[in-house]
Fold this protein.
Amino acid sequence: MQDRAEQLGDKVVYQIYVRSFNDSNGDGIGDLKGITQRLDYLKSLGVDYLWITPFFTSPQNDNGYDVANYREVEPMFGTMEDFDELSREARARGIGLMLDMVFNHTSTSHEWFQKALAGDSKYLAYYKFADAAPDATAENPGEPPTNWISKFGGNAWEYVPSLNKWYLHLFDVSQADLNWDNPEVRAELVDVIKFWKAKGVSGFRFDVVNLISKPEVLENDYEGDGRRFYTDGPHIHEYLQELVREGGIDGMVTVGEMSSTSIDNCIRYSAPRYHELSQTFSFHHLKVDYLNGNKWALQEPDIKALRNLLRDWQEQMTAGGGWNALFWSNHDQPRPNSRFGDCSTEECWRRSSELLPTCTHLMRGTPYIYQGEELGMTNPDFTSIDQYRDVESLNYYKILQDEGKTPEEAFHIVCERSRDDGRTPVQWDGTLNAGFTTGTPWIGIPQNHVTINAKAEVADPDSVWAYFHHLICLRKATPVVQKGGVHFLDAISDKVIAYERTVEDAAKGPSRLVVLCNFSGESQAALTEETVAGGSAFVSNCDDFKFEDGKLVLGPWAAVALAW
Ligand code: GLC
Ligand code: CA
């Protein structure tokens, strides 16, 4: 049995959202050649793998998560030659590529769905179709098969008059859910894996993969939006094991995006003995600012809840042999410094931008850096709904008003919660369009690119970029970070997250670390002096921590790790 810490303990992954990373041809959209041009930058940061979001043929209703052909490159992102060049150049620098497999659904433009629409029974069986009432019409289709709600708003079923059937779409109406109970579908997807594996990629990220197994009986959900019926569904582990075995990817670096999942399931998804994936993304810790679990209702982040979630996932995944992907951000999330920190002054911005990675990079698991996070990029300063592009944001801007919010209130919520907050172009330099494109960028660029940008930060030893670089180097050099056990400590203040890492056989470096992070804008008491007696500073985002009345007190947004 391979131990995940041996396999992955010293690795760091960097996520590239292609459309917003770097534009090589001036059409305002990032592309594969644009990534190749920036490989030296990524190499100097020190990352091991690049997770590249979908660049396959797609109508782009969900920016590529609506795939129309899994084996072709979408022309707006380049050509297969561009991909091969990227792959070669990355390998030459010791960087592996992880491709994003969107296997829960295809675009309705996919050939399979088009054949289904034409009535071909083979392909009807590729999707989740359900019969409508015999007297259903386009004007009056009747009740959908269930009351499940799409993740992007509205009912999750769409009526097709020409077939007198409904199809399931857990996401956009143009993203039809595949029928994984059909062995032919599973075989098709295995072939897709083999195709990209043969091209020499290092691994895969699987999009919302814990939603693929739907229940046999479709029933209304009177308690929620339907997710409890299809999340971690009845055959999920069997289907994943088959995909991994038949695709020949056991032991590769693979990560599953697990929506609303449980620790027990994630242990099965990621512990080596189950032969499924090598790590999991879970999202509970990114819902601590959702009022009553509702993404579109705002509340201040509940740091105590955050701390308890991180504790449970760290400690219990470790006990079960599972492995966590460690992250605050991705292309679906607002920028974490704007969200959990304070970007209103330069010093608060810098501390917040460094506090967050201090907290995750020293945990047990694999840290993910989402493009621009290493620069401290923030949410944009958009002032009008016209500046937003994302289908989910635009849907909810309407839905919130239908629910009685004023346009101003709805706009404010969208600003805080939009996926576009994390999708503005990478700020490469301080020039017009931030060095991202010579044309007109597909989405606006925050004003703060004048100071927050790669060119300035790579040259500055005290920058947020330099701090990320340092954290990566520390992981690579330090066994206790790579493979130590993890145990959460009870901090004196609820605003402080505190944990300890220990390892018995540290060949080098410390055998014990205590990590302390103040998630607030005020000084907070972290631990008693005796708990941390004899520890020396291992890494910190500022020197604003000291002993007062027998306690270690951290200044605003301070993060420090002590070592023994
Ligand atoms: C995942 C992706 C997201 C996409 C959704 C549907 O959550 O990260 O961007 O919209 O799946 O494919
Ligand atoms: Ca381009």
Remarks:
- The first strand starts at residue 13 and ends at 16.
